[in-house]
Design brief:
The protein has two domains: 1-101 and 264-353, Isopropylmalate Dehydrogenase; 119-252, 3-Layer(aba) Sandwich (Isopropylmalate Dehydrogenase). The chain is 40% helix and 20% strand. The chain contains eleven helices and twelve strands. The strands form two sheets. It has a ten-stranded mixed β-sheet, sandwiched between helices. A two-stranded antiparallel ribbon has the order 6-7. Helix 1 (14-32) links the parallel strand 1 and strand 2. Helix 7 (218-227) runs parallel beside helix 8. The mean pLDDT is 94.
């Protein structure tokens, strides 16, 4: 099979981790007789520098035509002084919106090999940690109307019932395939959007009676992730809350450099990216951890291309490399570490068997 993949390397460490991700995919292609055609396009800070726009039309068109999109990372202090609508991060938000990718799936899995990197007491994560955060991606305060003057600023948090319903459907479907437990996170004691959120989730729950639902305020959820993370299986929440909670969950598992994500819509097309940022302070130094990006590619194989065996091959290769003690700087914990290229070499060795 041949698959067309739009590649947005982006800024900072983005190009480095994406180069290694493509190498891992080429190894999968060679082993399982697939062809992955990569079409590189610009978005983010580098697009601003080269074209004057954070999201050129060519990029949007290539992404629309592709079977899936791989993204490295965008942004950096170089562009922090730009007006908000011209910043690199706006390209990412616009791309999600234009491709109608409303569901962000962020698994937070603590690898047994990295349990010593978990900042929590060992007894809190004994037996492992495996949860999924399902984050609404194209609504909420990030996409609401904005107002500002010299002495005033306002960001509107807005949701329509159908936006909540479709992300709830996705979360319930995931929960049905896991442990049939779902925690819906909101701030319904304060926000009208959260009250609508809660009512809509309860309505959708009737279609999935086998899934047990608990509602939890976002401040309590942030606390519970630290004091009792194993109580969670699937967490459903809105855009901003999901952004914050998924970063918290990533650090509980040991490193933000380890966690992948998938942004999905109605069909099989998706955009896949690590949840970490562009880390310009280590860009170009062969220090970045490519594992989250490589695992994001595994999610692409599973969700967009229906290649579960190939996806598992990548995931198993990562686990095997970690089990042998191979580490990048962010997860070394004082032990010898490998560079971006070298850790990928080890993962590819495991893929090739």
């Amino acid at each position: 099979m041949t698959y067309e993949i739009a590649v947005i390397k982006g800024d900072g460490i983005g190009p480095e981790i994406m180069d290694e991700t493509m190498r891992a995919l080429k190894a999968i292609g060679s082993k399982y007789d697939h062809i992955f055609n990569f079409k590189e396009v610009l978005a983010g800070g580098i697009a601003i520098d080269e074209t004057g726009k954070n999201l050129p039309e060519e990029t949007q068109e290539v992404c629309r035509q592709a079977d899936a999109v791989l993204l490295g990372a965008v942004g950096g202090p170089k562009w922090d002084t730009l007006p908000s609508d011209q910043r690199p991060e706006k390209a990412l938000l616009a791309l999600r919106k234009n491709l109608e990718l409303y569901a962000n799936i962020r698994p937070a899995v603590m690898f047994e090999e990295l349990k010593e990197a978990c900042p929590l007491k060992p007894e809190l994560v004994e037996g492992g940690l495996d949860l999924v955060i399902v984050r609404e991606l194209t609504g909420g305060i990030y996409f609401g109307k904005r107002e500002k003057s010299q002495t005033y600023a306002c960001d509107h948090m807005e949701y329509w019932e159908h936006e909540i319903a479709r992300i709830a459907e996705k979360a319930f479907q995931i929960a049905e395939g896991r442990n049939k437990r779902l925690v819906s996170v909101d701030k319904a004691n304060v926000l009208e959007t959260s009250r609508l959120w809660r009512r809509t989730v309860d309505r959708i729950n009737k279609k999935y009676p086998s899934v047990a639902v608990e509602h939890m305020y976002v401040d309590n959820a942030a606390m519970q992730l630290v004091i009792n993370p194993k109580q969670f299986d699937v967490i459903l929440t809105e855009n901003m809350f999901g952004d914050i909670l998924s970063d918290e969950a990533s650090m509980i598992t040991g490193s933000i450099g380890m966690l992948p994500s998938a942004s999905l819509g109605k069909g099989v097309k998706g955009m896949y990216e690590p949840i970490h940022g562009s880390a310009p302070d280590i860009a170009g130094q062969n220090k970045a951890n490519p594992i989250a990006s490589i695992l994001s590619a595994a999610m692409m194989l599973r969700y967009s291309f229906d290649l579960p065996v190939e996806a598992e091959a990548i995931e198993t290769a990562v686990k095997s490399a970690l089990a042998e003690g191979h580490r990048t700087l962010d997860i070394a914990m004082g032990k010898p570490c490998l560079g971006t290229i070298e850790i990928t070499d080890k993962i590819i060795e495991k893929i090739n068997g």
